[in-house]
Amino acid sequence: MFFSKVFVLVLSYSCLWVLVFGRISLLRLDENYIPNLKPYSELNMLDTEQPHSILPRTRPKRNEDHIISDCLYMTSEEGNFFYKSLNNEETVCGIYMFTEPDQRIEIHFNYFDVPCEIGGLVAFIDGWEMNGEIFPSKMDDSRPMRQRFAEFCGEKKIKQIFVSSQNVAFLQYRIPGPGKGFSFTTRFIKNPAPCNIFLQDEEDVITLRNYGNRTNCSVSAMFPAEIHILALSVGVVPTTGRRYSFETGSLYKCKKRGLSDYVEIGGSSGLDNSNLYLADSVCGMDSKPAKFSEMIGCGTTTVRLVSSGIFDNSVTVALRRLDEERISNGFFSVLCPMEENKK
């Protein structure tokens, strides 16, 4: 399904605390890295009267041109993008890109004039960053941060084509020079084995698989949500040898039991979901799980599939944003602390 303006509303109301106190910054991505790009201003999405980059559900033409005029710019479109600095302000700005769960984002720079001598810099991040927190977190992407971003400046042709590992990508830039800027083209390509997914829709059904690998995969959404497991096969079917299996039903507290493969359901206050407030951890084989749902009262809701590589795992979940009535009822499986939300 295609994305709509509803994502803007979700971000504006459900994650107000992130946007009011949030900023985009590379400062905290790697403690051992000394960045050239520093945060110069607080960014507030609510300052944008009309986030025109989020358009209706029609698929745009690939040759459509987009002028980047907002410091905090969000887009789910393919096409050509242009940015030109209008002043000498040393403001750090960002371009948040997202597409469908089973797609990746390819970025190719067509024009680049960002002088190093005036402090200009552009950085590509494989994922999203906000408030010094990044998605996917280190729990779900084990690569060092140096391998997940690249920064560059000067007047040159950038030959490298950047491809995200998941359905979100982020460009950050600081260009304190009138008339200087850059242009790039994005296109969405098929992801044959999606692992980490940033969900934009208020309601969706997602299947996570490890494809027999030792890895973590997750789906996250920036709003409180109801999680219902529709199908479960975790820690039962071996990746090698005889693949006979039988239904065990849903087993709970699997992480506490010391099992190697399980599904975590929980939430976090910010974008970083590496340390979840857990509602439960589930494993087993169950084609018809119970109708019981987990209510996650956090700014970010996450389902994570943890896999040792010994088993061929999969889990299908239905995720739906909690409406005001359900939130007002006050019943949550897990509730993130309010004081953390105010950081």
Automatic annotation (TrEMBL):
User: GO terms for biological process?
Assistant: hormone-mediated signaling pathway; negative regulation of corticotropin secretion
Alphabetical GO CC annotations of the entry are:
extracellular space
**InterPro entries noted in UniProt:** CRF-bd, CRF-BP_C, CRF-BP_N, Sperma_CUB_dom_sf
What the entry lists under Gene3D superfamilies is as follows: Spermadhesin, CUB domain (2.60.120.290)
Location in the cell reads: Secreted
Q: Which UniProt keywords apply?
A: Disulfide bond, Glycoprotein, Secreted, Signal
Coiled-coil region(s): none
Q: Which residues form the Corticotropin-releasing factor binding protein N-terminal domain?
A: 70-187
Task: Tell me yes or no: is Zinc among this UniProt entry's keywords.
Answer: no
Q: Name one GO molecular function term.
A: corticotropin-releasing hormone binding
SUPFAM superfamilies (UniProt xref): Spermadhesin, CUB domain (SSF49854)
The protein's job, in short, is: Binds CRF and inactivates it. May prevent inappropriate pituitary-adrenal stimulation in pregnancy.
Q: Which family does it belong to?
A: Belongs to the CRF-binding protein family.
User: What is the protein name stated in its UniProt record?
Assistant: Corticotropin-releasing factor-binding protein
Q: Can you name the source organism?
A: Agrilus planipennis
The gene designation is LOC108741929
